[in-house]
């Protein structure tokens, strides 16, 4: 049975077990040729089987422990995701309740968490890191940012403490549950085309946000893309849809990983991916409710 994945981490994990991948006279993954003819979802001769020490290890690296090397299960992903999201909630709560007592420190934690989380998140993503310490530190930084920005939005909207947060959390949970249900029922199918479309949308969204930020240095509110108004609401709804689509891609990666029997240590990277998507989804939900309150409370 041929195993394919759109997840870049999965592709690296699968490639690492295939000798000669990417060498001359071998076609790229998924493009036929000798590689595709040989690959049947199992390691090649001379390679350790999935879940055994040495699988997915680059030459010269120490072998994985038995725990890291055993095949990943859904429980592994759930437990590690609970740990990372729990860390986000913990540091978010600390920053949120610290803000009224010490606004200066609250702002420092908020923007420190934003910048630190951005830098560390990019490092983890591009390196495909499965280091638990790095991923938990990233979660802590994201929590600082989430807690601070939540308090800032509530102060701006003039709502009671926790009002916007509660609605944004509920919105995030509902969106996550809906995406998981649609994915499980195969209403949403994560194909290569789906991944390409979402990737283009992500890049376009990033360019749009950066352009709006640059313009805001010269014109208050920038292009109005993130301000309370009809255009801002439309943009937030689009961002929410894209964030939900990234969740579907994460679900597909986890499913492919379990089916392929990838090492247990990759569960940390999947937990990181889910945390990134959920934090982004929450912030967009928070911004949307802030806009609605700002518009209809006037």
UniProtKB/TrEMBL annotation:
It comes from the Bacteria. Residues 17-44 have a biased composition (Low complexity). The chain crosses the membrane at residues 77-99, 105-126, 133-153, 165-183, 195-219, 231-254, 266-283. The keyword Transmembrane applies. The keyword Transmembrane helix applies. Pfam families: BaxI_1. Keywords: Membrane, Transmembrane, Transmembrane helix. Residues 1-67 are annotated as: Disordered. This is Bax inhibitor-1/YccA family protein. It comes from Nocardiopsis rhodophaea.
